[in-house]
Amino acid sequence: MKKRIQILVVALALMLSLEARTQVTYIITNNAVTVTGPVYSVGAVIIPDTINGYPVTSIADQAFGGFYDITSVTIPNGVTNIGYDAFDWCVRMTSVNIPNSVTSIGAQAFLNCESLTDVTIPDSVASIGDSAFYDCYYITSMTIGKGVTNIGDSAFVYCGFLTNITVAPENPEYSSTNGVLFNKAQTTLVAFPQRLGGAYTIPDSVISIGNEAFEYSILTNVTIPNSVINIETNAFAYCQGLANVTLPDSVTSLGDEAFYDCSHLLSVTIPDSVASIGNQAFLNCIYLTNINVLPSNPSYSSVNGVLFDKAQTTLIQFPGGSGGTYTIPKSVTNFGSAFAYCNNLTSVIIGNSVTTIEDEAFNYCLYLTSVTIGNSVTSIGDEAFYGCYSMTSVTISSSVTNIGNMAFYACNDLTSAIIPSSVASIGDKAFDECHDLGTVIFLGDAPVLGGDSVFKNDSDPPSGYDTATIYYYSGTTGWGPTYGGLPTVMLNGLSTPPTLGGGGSGGVGVQFGQFGFPITAAVGQTIIVEASTDLLDWQPISTNILSGSSVNFTDSDWTNYPHRFYRTR
């Protein structure tokens, strides 16, 4: 019997020893423990209240971030601070207890903890950081204690199943009504639970609709009362079910991206009271066809549904649902990113008053096929035409000196590019991923390249991908056997650049001192040959009536020009 008791004692001692082993890493500072991470990441993590006799008071920044296999965490009473990103991306964590000792929850502390369902913020917590519970998608309810005096931006954004936010009645800074979070006086609507759908009437007490207040909401209709003055940044962003919005005469300002990606928004009326519209307030509203500004508005105007400033020198937003060909008015000097994501736009003509095509100006205009750039444009910004997959041609004027990084990135259907002699620099990846780009013609000296990947250059390109050839003229400088990793070909008096999109046809060249090429067409058809030195100004130089299947065209004046281009019609 004595031997059995000894065995049990040893087993119990071993169990106690295992139980005492901590699951976390830590540091000790000023006689207190800060937990820095888990020893291993599987299952439930229990943080002890003391380690080596010292109290655990803090969870460090990023301590448990990205440990996907953690299913739950027990935080001991005595912890006062949960750090930045402390539990972000713990995607399988279904529960966490926040003890009544915690006073601060850091920014992004529980970001992307998708499996959390319900969270209670105890009375001890004073501060909830920016995006603290962002994308905790399956949280259905949130209870906020009486001590919270600061809630950061996006704290409860993209909580897709959130239907209710409840605030303790004693809280001095915040309140809730019907599950919606307000400031105490209910003059600012702070957060609208994403899962609350249908129609919603904002209370008459509200003066301001806060940052990201309705972001990602499944609302289909919202009534904004005449009390509202400010609609803040991202207030209705990603409200993709919202079809119509009426702004009351009380509204004076719309924040940046206020209605960004409200994809089903059809029309908007801007009242006289609006004096400030933030950047990209209506960007990526892909069904929006009309922005109507009342004529008496002193700050803004509209023409055919397009939003301008009052003087119409700035084009603020081209409606994302409008399409076809658009000519930018001559009065416009700036249009920012007003055309980005305009998927129905097929062609744009930029006037001579515009000097800069800004960053992201036309990015992801998926069906934009051609752009004519005016003679005053000097710079094409970064990602200006990024993702314009359908673009087949672009006319770059001789005033352009700089082409930005990724300016034409992923313009998959672009077959050719002619770079004028004015261009001095081309940014990195400017023409990268232009899969069909076969011909790039430079009319002047080699520009400075901003990186090693300006052009796509697969040594063994997959089927359907072309490798471009660089053409340059004799007498220009800076060229070698390759440029930007691509092979180069010099064009001189005995050569002519290939037709756009492919190599030159047989019979093209100089014979008896005259440049010429064959024209093939139906018998009796009249073919006019036009010539240009800049691809903008075309002049007819020859009329040919075919008596047979082909006729030879010759140009005796070709030596009078440093370079000359031809087309037929």
What does this structure look like?
Helices cover 3% and strands 32% of the residues. The strands form twelve sheets. Strands 1, 2, 4, 5, 7, 9, 11 and 13 form an eight-stranded mixed beta sheet that branches. Strands 15-16-17-19-21-23-25 form a seven-stranded mixed beta sheet, with no helix packed on it. The chain has a five-stranded parallel beta sheet with strand order 32-34-36-38-40, with no helix packed on it. The radius of gyration is 33 Å and the shape is elongated. The termini are far apart.
How far is it from the N-terminal to the C-terminal residue, by CA? 111 Å
Shape: elongated
Derived structural class: mainly beta
Number of strands: 49
Rg over alpha carbons: 33 Å
Low-confidence stretches: 1-21, 493-506
Largest sheet: 8 strands, mixed
Count of DSSP helices? 1
Mean pLDDT: 87
Helix content: under 10%
Strand residue content: 25-35%
List its traits.
32% strand, mainly beta, seven-stranded mixed sheet, 569 residues, single chain, eight-stranded mixed sheet, disordered N terminus
